[in-house]
Write a structure and sequence with these properties.
Blueprint (H helix, E strand, L loop, with lengths): L7 E3 L12 H8 L6 E3 L4 E5 L4 E6 L24 E7 L1 E2 L12 E2 L3 H4 L4 E5 L5 E4 L2 E3 L15 E6 L8 E6 L4 E9 L2 H9 L7 E11 L1 H17 L2 E11 L3 H7 L3 H15 L4 H24 L4
Length: 304
């Protein structure tokens, strides 16, 4: 914040509500709030005559409310000639996803009923325009695997009271979150995955693999994920939907004999048996686990 010497205005939201004891009261006790910060811990108006605007603030004083805290804006008076800028944190009703419409509601026409020149909103993590005078800026950095356009700050220009704002999105995000989903069914699918498994260094990546592959494909996938881990900012993977179906050549290369060889043969028989689908799935899963353990033992040279 030290990079801007002008006034800062901050309001608490649902994660830092203005409770009796909060991060804000602690910051006040520690004396770390800068002199140019105007902190609204209750519904109030800040006027800046020299800058020709007034800020109407509706902070959250608890994590969840069920009445519209911006409703008092309609009756709040500000000095003549000042821009009326609203600041609030909540969910615009009937516009956002249904599962987030209930707590902290905000009327979709609040900018109009309260004669606001601009209404700046927080809560929705993506950059979103509600109407010509109402915007969510979203989070300045993406924080989840969701394509709702995060990673922006908004530059809002107003010529004077009543003029329509000109809003410019400024890119602030440095990291790109990608969710890759692939279904493997033939050997070439694993080869295609390997070819495209090098994300940019600023990527946060989640890989979900389903389908089936042989032992060679599994090893190639592990290698590709290791290379992605070394290159990207973060890599998560979900392989629970990927079944290992070792080929006859895979099993022969493991050189399993004795009791282990008999178990593998029995599992393969059950895998190919007709009738009980659940039994075949169990046999396939068990065969995948066993051959993976044997391959790891063979790779490390273990004899136990």
């Amino acid at each position: 914040m030290q990079g801007f010497a002008g006034p800062w205005i901050m309001i608490p939201g649902n994660h830092d509500a203005a409770l009796t004891e909060s991060v804000w009261t602690q910051a006040k006790r520690l004396g770390v709030l800068p002199a140019n910060l105007h902190l609204a811990l209750q519904s109030e108006v800040f006027e800046f005559p020299a800058l020709r605007f007034a800020a109407l603030c509706a902070p959250l004083t608890q994590r969840h409310t069920y009445n519209d805290l911006t409703e008092p804006f309609d009756g709040l008076q500000t000095s003549l000639g000042l821009l009326r800028i609203g600041l609030a944190h909540g969910s615009v009703q009937g516009v956002l996803a249904e599962d987030i419409d209930s707590p902290n509601p905000i009327a979709p026409n609040r900018a109009s009923t309260a004669r606001l020149d601009y209404l700046a909103l927080g809560d929705w993590h993506g950059c979103k325009q509600i109407d010509a005078r109402t915007w969510y800026s979203g989070t300045p950095e993406q924080d989840r695997f969701k394509g709702n356009e995060p990673g922006f700050a908004l530059l809002v220009q107003l010529d004077g009271p009543g003029s329509e704002p000109v809003v410019t999105r400024l890119t602030t995000g440095k990291f790109t979150w990608q969710a890759w989903q692939h279904q493997l069914s033939v050997d070439s699918d694993a080869d295609a995955l390997i070819a495209g498994s090098m994300p940019p260094v600023r990527d946060v990546l989640h890989v979900t693999l389903t389908g089936q592959t042989d032992l060679s494909g599994q090893q190639w996938i592990a290698s590709a994920l290791n290379r992605a881990h070394a290159r990207a900012r973060s890599v998560e993977s979900d392989l629970t939907g990927l079944r290992l179906l070792p080929t006859s050549d895979d099993i022969a290369a493991l050189k399993a004999d004795g009791y282990v060889g008999e178990v593998i043969a029995d599992l393969r028989d059950r895998q190919g048996a007709q009738g009980d689908d659940d039994a075949r799935d169990v046999a396939t899963h068990a065969l995948g686990i066993l051959t993976t353990l044997l391959a790891e033992r063979q790779a490390t040279g273990s004899t136990t």
